[in-house]
Specification:
Elements: E1 4-9, H1 11-24, E2 29-34, H2 45-51, E3 60-63, H3 71-78, E4 82-84, H4 92-95, E5 101-103, E6 111-116, H5 124-136, E7 141-145, H6 155-164, E8 168-172, H7 176-185, E9 189-193, H8 199-203, E10 207-210, H9 218-230, E11 236-237, H10 248-261, E12 266-269, H11 272-275, H12 282-296, E13 300-303, H13 313-329, H14 354-361, E14 370-374, E15 377-382, E16 385-389, H15 405-424, E17 457-459
Parallel strand pairs: 1-2, 1-3, 3-4, 5-17, 6-7, 6-13, 7-8, 8-9, 9-10, 10-11, 11-12, 12-13
Antiparallel strand pairs: 14-15, 15-16
């Protein structure tokens, strides 16, 4: 039986929706119904329940992506599944382009060790507060970093407090004395042991992270692996990721070689040597580094948030590991899964051409200004005129709001957002904030599942 879909919309988008559906030549039949309002984004579940008198024999109802309200309850009342489509009509072909599949972003297999690099200089209370923040952003293990020639007299107290607060804890030091103290205080992991300090693992009941005896010395690492395997003790291997221009490519080769020689050993990648020591946005770095982890089955990373440009590194790594897990599980590229790591750009920044925006403007019969962008620039229009520019200051003299401070302020905000979106290649929707992925705290209490989902993929809840 052919599916019949009812599309609900507003009067301004009705013609455009018809055009998009006709060009799609879908396998389903459909009815487009204008619900008696101009702007489709203003639609609510309560409004649909009140105004929809005929479902036109539909087996499913698609409402605008910004439709507010409880669609589950509405579906039960109408007896027909009601679901949100895309925020932009132009994205509907992509929405129907794939068979709907469930991508579960609650799952991952990479543990994030979040390092507090200056733990000896912090009070126990400060360590607990920072640890809680890191855990909120996705950290699985809190790593207490010791500092050279810096006493850490409250180490044991800090470890006890963290364990009482149900944290997994690691201690990071190259001093054997610190490592023994940390192990006896109850940490879960020790960073870092090497061939000459493996005796520490016999002194404490802690999982060691093992590094080469000297830099790049994989043979010492191989010997340490054999020793730990002979003792049937758990351990994690870290061949050491080097910064760019200081051995980065060669270190990636070492990781690959280690995985080839030891297919089943647990490994760690210290991503902070790249995110901290490269002045570039860290979201893309984390995506690439977690992709390497996914390919090489590296299940532990050491992350830091020290530099100002890396303040989102932990939550970016958290989202990246979830995306890579989902892509690997579904044997697909890490595309069209979640847009949380795309802070600066978007897949389709300009869904409407200048001609299409002008056509919409020709239907406007009221004095309220609409703001949209196309690849050509910024456009603002109402019943009295249509104006375009690439600089918002060029538009102000044409808007007749000199004596209306509130209106001028509002239009200034919207045009500033529009200019930023146009310059970067981002989506702009009037009266909506620009989306910056997981880089913005207000969007990160839960990964924003509406930043991009036109590919026909349904997302389960994903904490980040």
């Amino acid at each position: 039986m052919t599916e019949h879909i009812l599309f609900l919309t507003g009067s301004l988008a009705q013609k455009q929706l018809h055009n998009v559906l006709e060009k799609m030549q879908p396998e389903f039949t459909y009815t487009v119904h204008q619900l008696g309002l101009k702007v489709a984004a203003l639609m609510t579940a309560e409004m649909i329940e009140r105004k929809l008198k005929d479902t036109f024999g539909a087996t499913r109802i698609i409402v605008p992506g910004r439709c507010r309200g409880d669609l589950t309850a509405l579906s039960e009342k109408l007896g027909i599944p009601v679901e949100r489509g895309t925020e932009e009509v132009k994205d509907l072909p992509l929405f129907f382009g794939k068979k709907i599949q469930i991508v579960d972003l609650t799952r991952y297999n990479v543990k994030i060790f979040a390092e507090i690099t200056d733990a000896p200089n912090l009070t126990v209370s400060e360590i607990l507060n920072r640890s809680a923040y890191y855990r909120k952003n996705g950290a699985d293990v809190i790593d207490l970093g010791c500092l050279p020639s810096t006493p850490f007299p409250h180490m044991e107290e800090a470890i006890t407090a963290l364990k009482q607060a149900n944290f997994l804890v690691s201690l990071d030091s190259l001093e054997a004395h610190d490592l023994v103290r940390g192990g006896k205080a109850g940490v879960d992991y020790l960073l870092s042991l090497h061939e000459s300090t493996l005796w520490i693992a016999d002194e404490v009941n802690t999982t060691p992270i093992i590094i080469p005896e000297t830099h790049e010395d994989l043979e010492s690492l191989n010997r340490a692996i054999k020793i730990m395997q002979a003792k049937n003790r758990p351990f994690i291997v870290d061949p050491i990721l080097d910064p760019i221009h200081f051995g980065f490519t060669a270190s990636i080769v070492r990781y690959h070689k280690m995985r080839q020689n030891h297919p089943d050993v647990e490994m760690m990648l210290g991503v902070g040597n790249i995110t901290e020591l490269t002045h570039a946005d860290t979201a893309g770095m984390n995506a690439l580094l977690l992709g390497i982890c996914s390919e090489l089955n590296i299940n532990h990373i050491l992350a830091t948030q020290v530099s100002h440009h890396a303040v989102c590194a932990i939550k970016e790594a958290d989202l990246a590991r979830r995306i890579m897990f989902a892509a690997k599980e579904h044997d697909t590229l890490p595309k069209h899964i979640n847009a949380g790591l795309m802070a600066l750009h978007e897949l389709s920044a300009f869904p409407y051409s200048l001609d299409e925006i002008q056509e919409l403007a020709s239907q406007i019969k009221d004095p309220s200004y609409r703001v949209q962008i196309s690849s050509e620039g910024l456009h603002i229009f109402n019943r009295d005129g249509f104006h375009s520019a690439t600089d918002p200051f060029e538009l102000f003299p044409k808007l007749s709001v000199e004596n209306d401070g509130g209106h001028a302020f509002y239009l200034g905000v919207e045009l500033a957002r529009a200019e930023i979106a146009w310059q970067l290649g981002k989506r702009f929707n009037q009266d909506q904030p620009l989306l910056w992925g997981c880089a913005v705290d207000t969007q990160n209490s839960e990964v924003d599942l509406h930043t991009f989902k036109p590919a026909g993929i349904t997302f389960k809840n994903a904490k980040s």
